[in-house]
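## Example record

The block below lists the input lines for one assembly entry, exactly as stored, with component labels intact.
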Amino acid sequence: MDFHSLIHWVQQDTLESLRLFAPELVLCATIVVLLLARMLLPRVQNPMVVTLVGSLAAFWLAVDQMGNPQLPQHAELFTGLLVFDQFMVFFRVFLTAFLVLFVIFTWRSGIPAPEDGTDFYALVLGAALGMCLMTAANNLVMVFLAVEMASVPSYALSGILKGRRESSEAALKFAVYGAGAAGVMLYGISLLGGALGSLHLPSLAARLGQVLAGHGGEVGQVVLVLGGLMIMVGLAFKLSAFPFHFWAPDVFHGAAAEVGGFLSVASKAAALALLVRTAVGLSYVPPEAPSVAQVAAPQAQGAAEPRGAQAAPAVAQARVLPTAFAAPQQGHAPDHAAQAPQQAHGGAEAPPASRMALNQALVPARRFAAYLIGLLAALTATFGNLAAYGQTNIKRLLAYSTIAHAGYMMMPVAASLMLQDEAAREALATLLFYVVVYLFMNLPAFYIVALLRNRLGSEEIADYAGLIRQSPGLVVCFAAVFFSLIGLPPLAGFAAKFAILASLAHAGLWTLLAVAGLNTALSLFYYLRVIKVMTMDPAPESQPQVSIPLAASADGLFALVLTLPLLVIGVYWNGVFGWAVQAVAPLFR
Amino acid sequence: MLLASLFTEPVGVAHYVAVGAVLFVCGAVCMATKRNALGVLMGVELVLNGANLNFIAFSQPALYADSAWALGLDGQLASIFVIVLAAAEAAVALAIALNFYNNFTSIDVDHADELKG
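Predicted structure tokens for the full assembly:
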């Protein structure tokens, strides 16, 4: 391996990675354009329009990669820091679609104020960029970087309401809790990575398999368990899972409803994707994941024949590179063949049997992760639902509802870790389906809260009394959202919850199934209480005029657009579910 | 027993990790007990630096009997990234603390108790 071919390989790898990384690049470019526009064209610039165009472009590029047969099915980007597969593409489409809807949401609801627009949208785009990275992380350093990239702008976002005591308190609490959780997570990463001698998730899984099979030297199990638990602290914070959920109600209460919508949908979806990436990444040794440079090489050869002869040896050598970078002295390690599929060219092709043996040895790790996630999920769902009872502020109630739903959404992850192959993929597909449905439950909820805040100047549930007489359409939308959050047919929430319960039954996690069923019943009452206040309670004398007709005003129309998919997906859920099944295909191999 | 062997053995990974663990615990205690928001943020810095020390120690092949288990360059790069991120986080957190001070004329985290339930 001489210096020239090394440079050549890095160049090729980076260029090919950047091509697949296009949606994120567009988000980056949008941030730059936003900031430059304020400086150069302060009078004509409209940050909302710039963001809308940028996120639409990112969405279009992301959709273009969906199920595209010309792209690699499973490849590592940027020397193994990120992984490209349909799972990542799914979440990227989801996040960019959310971004488009979110920008329209903020346009209708009037926050941010015009002078804050650039700051607000730059922070939103930055956080979305971090979330996209979370869904693709393939290296523990990347896990930490992505979590921080998503968190740090969120701290600032929650304090965007200037001069409000509540908002500044929310931001301070979020920042302090978040920094603490991130620190603990980083320490866990250093323990786990240090004990196993790698930060690259597939290599880590292979090493972990060896250690569990008893060929691992003197790696203490205590260190591994401690490292795993500490990483879980950081993930639980992002998921707002019990016992690291304390920030969520305060932040949702103090920050604007817009920020609540952003955190409760996008941040949660990305955190779930990251949970899957780390839990599955640490407990399965995936099959060979070539770097993009290798995937692209055959095509380049076909296209440009003269260059082909030169490119071939460079590529063959390139295959050793990722691990050569990672740990220069590991050439003689006994795990050489098993841990790095990239080294296949050296004649040391990992026999499938050894990967199978490692995956077999990893069963205890999978069990541990499944029980840990299952326990947290049960506690989170129960706590969220119980705490939601006494709430009088609608944003706080929705925060606890978000916590409870984080619990539900962690359950299929536990189920998929208990299952094998096809069954595991099906269980995980229910999570992706739920995430999509969740977008159309929580975004309209926060949107309607924001609309009512603008008209009523209040976010107390009691002030919603008798709203149905003034704007019946909006209240019906709100009620549909709540019924879907409870999980009543024929709305999409029912299909999603039913799929999750089925996956739990399939995995034999009967306790978790019972907890989920019980929680559904528990949640019925506090959601219905809000609907009762809006429909049955008499309106106070002094209630301001809040008529928002659904069809005749842009505000109402957007509420309808956000809510209607609940009914559509609730009836025709095969399409979305099929898409989710397709997205999880590369996992659990 | 364990401590005694640390004192008699030649310096190895365990010694560095022990210092890192002490830093981590100091940071965690600082986060839990300090009432001043800046004190809490200092605790976070201690925790991050404890992790950084781990990364550096684990990345040093010379400290390992079987150097295949060392982190290598990955660990050193990780620590550089962490230093950058810690700076970014501190900048945002200080801005937020200042914003809090503007509204509450205090940065005592105990005063942040208006949101509850």
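Residues 300-352 of chain A have pLDDT under 50 and may be disordered. Strands of chain A lie at 74-77, 82-85.
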